[in-house]
Design goal:
8 strands, Rossmann fold, eight-stranded mixed beta sheet, alpha/beta
Length: 300
């Protein structure tokens, strides 16, 4: 389904009754909505939630901002983002704030005044940005495998960052699938890939155009993000931080820094055996934590 917003459009789909409280799922860098697997969405919906997943701008079937072209400093931006912690403040064709505006626009389109936000990786950064910008519209916040934007936190493993710098051998479907499977295997470590991951990757490749400039624009938005550390303690909605103890891309200390910045009654959940991405074996635990947080009374 497509939501036509002011100056853009967003692809989305839903699970459960629209009469139930909404959980908005926000995906990470380069991912499309189907990265929130149907089983996971259905498990959340079974707890009497209206679950909405969507493609961020420059991903999947949402608007790709091709008119913006490649970021003028794309090569330097990619190098700094994936190879070095010390990074100057960079300009970006759009920001995480713009991506947060897209998400609020989708909620407006669906006539949803307040939503429970669940964001993974870049999506966690967007969710934090939304909660800071319009806290009255955020019923609860779950930041997963994400960070505060602070520049003093440790980098992921060099091997992993180098792997993600690689490109497919060609733009053929076969090479793109092989490349994506290899990347997923690296960032899901120490957890093995689910048996149906090859089918999922094939479907994702067919939904997501081979547009490296789109990925670069999203990446530039991540690099240019502000440090939210000084502001996260102002959040009063129930907050939870979920992080894989084996995350080799965004190390656990990023999650620990996030929950520390939130302070108060924010909860930290370390998932043993999980890397940067969520495989099916972790669904039950993570769904339980998200639902429990969403149902908490405001204790902050």
């Amino acid at each position: 389904m497509r939501a036509d917003l002011s100056g853009t459009f967003v692809e989305y789909d839903t699970f459960g009754s629209a009469n139930n409280p909404c959980i908005l799922l926000i995906m990470g860098l380069g991912g499309s909505l189907i990265a929130w697997r149907e089983k996971f969405c259905e498990m959340l919906a079974d707890h009497s939630f209206f679950v909405v997943r969507f493609d961020n701008r420059d991903a999947g079937l949402s608007k790709h901002w091709d008119e913006l072209g490649a970021p003028p400093i794309m090569r330097r931006a990619v190098t700094h983002a994936l190879l070095g912690r010390v990074c100057p403040r960079l300009t970006s064709p759009y920001t995480l704030g713009d991506m947060a505006t897209d998400a609020f626009g989708l909620l407006d389109y669906l006539k949803i005044e307040r939503a429970h936000l669940v964001g993974v990786s870049m999506g966690g950064m967007i969710a934090q940005t939304m909660a800071l910008a319009k806290p009255e519209r955020v019923a609860s916040l779950c930041s997963m495998s994400s960070t505060t934007g602070a520049r003093n936190l440790g980098d992921g493993e060099l091997f992993v960052r180098l792997q993600l710098l690689k490109t497919p051998k060609s733009t053929s479907e076969e090479d793109r699938v092989a490349h994506s499977l290899n990347n997923l295997s690296v960032i899901s470590h120490p957890a093995p890939l689910d048996d149906d991951t090859p089918e999922y990757v094939l479907n994702a490749i067919r939904r997501n155009p081979a547009k490296p400039d789109s990925f670069a624009r999203q990446l530039n938005a991540v690099i240019a993000q502000p440090d939210r550390t000084p502001y996260l303690n102002s959040l009063t909605m129930p907050c939870i931080v979920i992080h894989g103890e084996g995350d080799r891309l965004v190390p656990l200390e990023h999650g620990e820094a996030t929950v520390k910045a939130m302070g108060g009654e924010a909860k930290m959940v370390v998932v043993n055996g999980m890397g940067h991405v969520m495989m099916g074996t972790f669904y039950a635990q993570i769904v339980d934590e998200i639902v429990t947080n969403a149902l908490r009374e405001d204790v902050r």
